[in-house]
Structure formats: C-alpha cells, structure tokens
Amino acid sequence: MQTATTLEVLRKRVAELRQSGASIALVPTMGALHEGHLSLMREAKNSCDHVVASIFVNPTQFSPNEDLDSYPRQLVKDSEMLEAEGVALLWAPDTQQMYPDGFVSSISVRGVSEGFCGADRPGHFDGVATVVCKLFNQVQPDMAFFGEKDFQQLAVIRTMARDLDLTRPHVDSIIGVPTVREEDGLAMSSRNRYLSAKQREEAAMLSMQMREAIARIEDGQNVGRTLTALEDALLGAGFDRVDYADLADSITLEKLGELGDRPARLLVAARIGSTRLIDNMPVGQAA
Ligand code: AMP
Fold first, then answer.
1. CA 111 to CA 117: how far, in whole Å?
2. If you measure from the C-alpha of residue 2 to the centroid of ligand 1, how many angstroms do you get, rounded to a whole number?
3. How many CB atoms lie within 10 A of CB 66?
4. What is the C-alpha to C-alpha distance for residues 247 and 92, in angstroms, rounded to an integer?
C-alpha cells in the first residue's frame, strides 16, 4: 500500500492506479479504524479494481465544544489494517493540505441536513459536505462507500451529489453499507472507546430498545407513544439524555407520524455521560 500526504503525490498515485482504465473506489474515514470501516473497504474491493482510503480528522465538522483534540489518532495501526485489506492507496493529508491559508468556501445541503444530528451539531454537515466534496474532487473515484451507521450523513452526501451533478462519483455510485455491530448489538464506533465498563454495558440497551420499538411499530402500535416509551426506556437504562428518537422517511428524512408504504427508518441519538451514541435501523416491510 502506498501513502500520500500531499495533493501532488495523491494525484500522481491515482493516475498510476487509473492506468489501463482500472476503476477506483474511495472510502473516506477519520481513522481509529474498526470492523465497521473494514467492511466498507471489503465492499469497495468487491466493486472496483483499486481502493483508495482516506484518513482525515476534519476539524470543520467538530463544534468548539466537541472532541476534536481528543479524537483517537492511530495512523500506524490504521495503515497496517488497511494494508491487510488490500487497500492500494492511503490519502492522509494534514489540515494545511486540506484547508490552505485563504480557504473560504463551504457547501451547505439544506433540508436533509437540518434535523436530527444537524439540529444538535450546528455546522456539522456543512463541514462534512465540504470535505467529502473535496475528497471526491481530489480522488475522482468511480464509486464511494459510506456506512449506514451515519444515515443522515449518507443522505446529505447523496443529496449533494445529486444537486451538484457530481460525476466522479455519480450519485448512483455512492454506496451505503449496513452497520457492523458488536456481539451485543452496539453499533461499532470509534467513540465507543470513550465508554467506561459500566457505560459500555448500558450502551447495549440502545439497539435492544430500538428493536423492541420497531417490533411494536411494525405490529401497528401508535408511533408517538412507542417513541416516548423508547426514550423512557433508554433514560431508565442509564442514558443521561436522548437527543432524538424519531421515525423518518428513509430518503428525505422527513419525520413520520405513522408507518406508510415508503421505506422508513428509526433514528436515535442518545448520550451516556459526555459520549453521544447514534444508531438507526430500517422499519417495516418496505424498508
Ligand atoms: P468515521 O471514521 O467515523 O468518519 O467513519 C468513516 C466511515 O465508516 C463512514 O462512512 C461511517 O458511516 C462508516 N462507519 C462507521 N462505523 C460503522 C459501522 N459500525 N458499520 C459500518 N460503517 C461504519
């Protein structure tokens, strides 16, 4: 595996990979890799000739009170993991490469970025959309792979690609990969390592309670009352705050008061201490 830390080297290496028409998949990450990230690499490898992975802890998607400075960084270990997955090229720019002096532009995807995590983390999705658009332009991949774990992020990126007529990748070549979970159901996340042993046990209740709520909604029980019961159950299980627990349209992320014919998703964000966990799951036959 080769590593590029400057745009000049990245472009040279990508051009080499492209020789004789080989296809390229991009998998953007912030590092501190786990099995969830690796499943994206595997899906990417199954679909394209070469995989380019990026590791960049993007400062513009963190609010001033968030964990930018303490976010886990382990580039050597991550590189070994990527190499073992057969990744061809690691793009690991520093902040100066990504945002040189004088950088002033931003992409804002209204609507789909405004509720849920967008409401709790002002500016977060502008930071995400802008850095992902830059990564797309830098690598110009045929396909790009993102986790359904960050369901709203995936919706924001697809909307951006559609609205801005992106071609590398085209919106239809932005692939969502199912969430990889720990044995007890907790969605894998680089932030899970912030949890104490007790908090880690409590965190498992998130996916369990979500599954129960989904069974009730699919059984025809009232959506509003089921979501309130879900929040109460999480607070009772040791969560300190539930930022949101909503049923939403899977494409537009509009909130739904009842399950209809269109694919729906249960989306939850909840905090244990200062750690914020998110999860989402499909709801109903059509999902
Ligand atoms: P991050 O490094 O947290 O920015 O995540 C990089 C990519 O990995 C994003 O597309 C995430 O949605 C995806 N990802 C993170 N956790 C998981 C997981 N548990 N299962 C599948 N994909 C994941």
1. 12
2. 22
3. 15
4. 37
Provide the residue-wise pLDDT of the chain in tens; the chain has 287 residues: 999 999 999 999 999 999 989 999 999 999 999 999 999 999 999 999 999 999 999 999 999 999 999 999 999 999 999 999 999 999 999 999 999 999 999 999 999 999 999 999 999 999 999 999 999 999 999 999 999 999 999 999 999 999 999 999 999 999 999 999 999 999 999 999 999 999 999 999 999 999 999 999 999 999 999 999 999 999 999 999 999 999 999 999 999 999 999 899 999 999 999 999 999 999 996 54
From 34, 39, 40, mutation site for ligand 1 pocket: most ligand atoms within 8 A of C-beta: 40
**DSSP H stretches of helix in 221-270:** 223-236
158 lines ligand 1 (CB under 6 A): no
**What is the value of pTM for the model shown?**
0.97
Among 37, 50, 124, 170, the active-site one is: 37
Q: Which CATH number fits domain 2-177: 1.10.10.10, 3.40.50.620, 3.30.200.20, 3.30.70.260?
A: 3.40.50.620
Ligand 1: atom nearest CA of 181 is 19
Q: Which atom of ligand 1 is nearest to the CA of 180?
A: 20
The CATH 3.40.50.620 domain(s) of the chain lie at: 2-177
Ligand 1 centroid–CA 147 distance in Å is 5
For the beta carbon of residue 252, count every other beta carbon within 10 angstroms: 12
CATH 3.30.70.2390: does it fit domain 190-279?
no
Q: Cα(20)–Cα(244) distance, rounded to whole angstroms?
A: 49
